[in-house]
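# step 3/5: fold
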Amino acid sequence: MQSLRGVRVLVTGATGFLGAGLCRKLVADGAVVHGASRMIPAGQQDGIHGWPTDLTEFHQVRSLLDNLRPEIIFHLAGHSVGTRDLREVLPAFHKNAQATVNLLTAAVETGGARVVTSASLEEPEGSDDAPVSPYAASKSVEHVYARLFRQLYGLPIIILRVFMTYGPGQVTLNKLIPHCICSLLMGYAPLVTSGERGVDWVFIDDVVRAFCLAAVTPDSEGRTLDVGTGQLVTVREVVNRLTRMINPAIEPRHGALPERQRERVRVASIGRTDEVLAWKPKITLEEGLARTVRWYDERLRAGELVFPEDHDLAAPGRRYT
């Protein structure tokens, strides 16, 4: 299989940042796209057949796969809250680990589907390395079960370890880049940490392209491949670049937010990804940030995004009303 045209695909987490971007690309490439999410409306919209589904309920997952019989499953659904709070342990376990086991089990039982799923840069790197958050622990469990289902049940599965993805379409405004861009466009000083952590930032279009290649590349099953740039840029540098692009008169409030405990610094190893998928990132950080700023600027002007009224950032005035 070298093309996704006419291929019946299922995208879980279809309303999320990455899932929505992937769905748009798949529709443009001529795939028959089915999207599953607890939030997605039923029926067809923008070329996507929506299936409201709770992946933590096995009978719903099995019924979905029985009805659709997808040729490819892109599994992107999950609980991506990265805080260390005890209250996140059960939601992360159920919405990540349990949901993934449900999906993989149903995929084996119904047969025929190739699965492309995601790992996290926050997962432990060695056997003695503990997860840094409930999210990281749940993603580690997902990864273990994915390898189990490949080894024991022959499920054709490819795992992509996705690094810090950014770009147009991320509407969760408390995430770092959306928060900084919208704050600066509105005339506010962004509230950020000290920003000393190095991060491997990768543009969403490059990530989507990697998922599409993984779906059609022969002999890639059973691999875990990094999707990043292979370069670290600190949070502080990214915030400062955005400030220079948007409003150099504003001084970001570095250190206004506390650092997360045991934040992991990890850089993608993309040589193997290039070898297996013939994939390399194409969008530089400078170009990616500029495209992202334009997207938020257009949507703030159009009133399609609403900046929280209770935002506690001091500002001389707003650009948008």
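# step 4/5: annotate
The radius of gyration is 20 Å.
# step 5/5: archive (pending)
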